[in-house]
Each structure stands twice: as structure tokens, then as C-alpha cells.
């Protein structure tokens, strides 16, 4: 079976993009070079910060996202994905550029994953950027079927946002300190009643691997969905 060529809209952020491509390769059930997925990655670090745009503190990223999409299409990508949760707040704006290719929508893939693998979960805690939270990306997709819990405002600011964006945060290439401060946010969500925690920022799986409740790794969820759509056999 011929694999469809996967195009990764990358750069949001760059380290999460590299991690996502690694997951595509690791999850493929490949015994030779030719059995691995065909991947074109545009790790476009010049896409403006999505959260800053949502908070009206920065430029709208849509123009640069569309440039990335057009570059991938021109290079031969047949199925596109965007391993950035916050960027899906701009989906309606960049969707017209997706004409002619398939697109695996991350929040939709998460919803399908929940139904298939965590059917008994009713309350979800979400760790994400302030942009994802304010845009309602997951509230719209999951809110009718699940009770959604976010960290308290102070925890969001001093733990989650600091872990992602701080000078010694994940986007800056650090892991130990972000992991330590995120533990407080994880514990808070569990205490508030979360039965599972959605890692709603693709930087978070770089440091969070386990908790007292199931962690929903959005990078892995997206990778599995993309491989299925690209007709690439997946390892169990």
C-alpha cells in the first residue's frame, strides 16, 4: 500500500515539532526504511505566538500559517497536521488554504480518542496555554460531553504559563524546572475532580509523562490519527 505524504505545519513550537515527527517514526510499524511514513516538515519558527495574538498582545499568525501550508502543498504533502493546540483557535481563518489536501484536526482527534480509549471518563482537567483556554478550543469540542476543569487563575499564571513560556521553561529548552512546577497544577486538577488530564499544549508532553490519573498526550493522539489517515501501519 502506498503511503500518503504527511506534511507537518511546524514551528509552534519548534521543539514540539521535532518531538511530533519523532513520534510519527516511533509509532510506525516499520521494518525497513521504505516502510516508514513519508514526511515533509516545515519547522517555521516565524509563526507569531498564538497566545499573544489571542490576548491582543501580538500579530495574528494566520498569514504565516497559510504560507507554511502553501509551501507544504507545493512540496507534495497530501495530508497535513498542525501539532499545536492553540493554533486551532485560528482554524476557520486558515482552513481555506487547506483546499486540495486532507487535514487532521487535533481537537477532533482528541474527542475520538476519548470515546475509544477512555469511554468511562466524565471529568477532564486541561493543562494548556492561556490562549487555548480563552479561545475555547476544547470547550467547544468537548464541553457538551465532559465536565472540563482548568487550573485556578494563579496556578495557570505561576505554574502552567511559567512552565511553558518562562526563561527556564519548555520553549527555552528546559525540562527539570518545568516538570517540578507543573506538578502543582496536576495535583490541583486531580483534587478538583479530574479523572484524566489533557495535555493541551504539545510542549507539555516533553516533560510530563505520568500522573495519578491518565494523561492524554495530544502529540501522541495526533500522531496516531495522522498515521491512520496516511495508511501507515502502526505498532501496537
Walk me through the structure:
There is one protein chain. With 236 residues, the protein is α/β, with parallel strands linked by helices. The protein has 2 domains: 2-106 and 221-232, Rossmann fold, CATH 3.40.50; 107-217, 3-Layer(aba) Sandwich (Rossmann fold). Helix content is 43%, strand content 14%. The chain has 10 helices and 8 strands. The chain has helices spanning 14-27, 50-54, 62-75, 91-94, 106-117, 130-135, 137-142, 153-165, 176-191, 218-229, and strands at 6-10, 39-43, 79-81, 102-104, 123-128, 147-149, 196-200, 215-217. The protein has a 4-stranded parallel β-sheet with strand order 2-1-3-4, sandwiched between helices. A 4-stranded parallel β-sheet has the order 6-5-7-8. Strand 3, helix 4 (91-94) and strand 4 form a beta-alpha-beta unit. Helix 5 (106-117) crosses helix 10 (218-229) and helix 8 (153-165) packs antiparallel against helix 9. The two termini are 19 Å apart.
- Helical stretch count? 10
What is the strand arrangement across the widest sheet? 2-1-3-4
Give a quick account of the main beta sheet: strands, pairing sense, barrel closure: 4 strands, parallel
What is CATH's topology name of the largest domain?
Rossmann fold
Pick out the low-confidence regions: none
Order of SSEs, N→C?
A: EHEHHEHEHEHHEHHEEH
How far the N terminus sits from the C terminus, by CA atoms, comes to: 19 Å
Shape by Cα distribution = globular
> Which class best fits the helix and strand makeup?
alpha/beta
What is the strand content? Answer: 5-15%
Q: Which CATH architecture of the largest domain is right?
A: 3-Layer(aba) Sandwich
Amino acid at each position: 500500500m502506498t503511503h500518503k505524504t504527511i506534511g507537518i505545519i511546524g514551528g509552534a513550537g519548534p521543539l514540539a515539532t521535532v518531538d511530533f515527527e519523532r513520534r510519527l517514526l516511533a509509532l510506525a510499524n516499520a521494518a525497513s526504511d521504505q516502510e516508514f511514513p513519508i514526511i515533509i516538515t516545515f519547522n517555521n519558527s516565524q509563526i507569531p505566538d498564538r497566545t499573544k495574538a489571542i490576548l491582543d498582545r501580538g500579530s495574528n499568525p494566520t498569514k504565516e500559517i497559510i504560507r507554511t501550508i502553501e509551501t507544504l502543498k507545493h512540496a507534495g504533502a497530501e495530508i497535513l497536521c498542525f501539532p499545536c493546540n492553540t493554533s486551532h483557535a485560528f482554524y476557520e481563518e486558515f482552513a481555506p488554504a487547506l483546499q486540495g489536501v486532507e487535514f487532521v484536526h487535533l481537537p477532533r482527534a482528541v474527542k475520538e480518542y476519548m470515546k475509544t480509549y477512555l469511554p468511562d471518563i466524565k471529568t477532564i482537567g486541561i493543562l494548556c496555554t492561556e490562549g487555548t483556554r480563552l479561545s475555547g478550543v476544547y470547550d467547544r469540542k468537548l464541553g457538551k460531553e465532559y465536565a472540563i476543569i482548568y487550573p485556578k487563575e494563579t496556578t495557570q499564571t505561576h505554574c502552567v504559563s511559567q512552565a511553558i513560556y518562562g526563561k527556564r521553561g519548555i520553549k527555552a529548552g528546559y525540562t527539570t524546572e518545568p516538570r517540578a512546577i507543573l506538578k502543582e497544577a496536576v495535583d490541583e486538577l486531580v483534587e478538583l475532580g479530574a479523572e484524566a488530564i489533557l495535555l493541551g499544549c504539545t510542549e507539555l508532553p516533553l516533560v510530563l509523562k505520568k500522573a495519578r490519573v491518565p494523561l492524554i498526550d495530544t502529540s501522541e493522539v495526533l500522531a496516531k490519527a495522522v498515521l491512520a489517515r496516511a495508511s501507515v501501519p502502526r505498532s501496537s
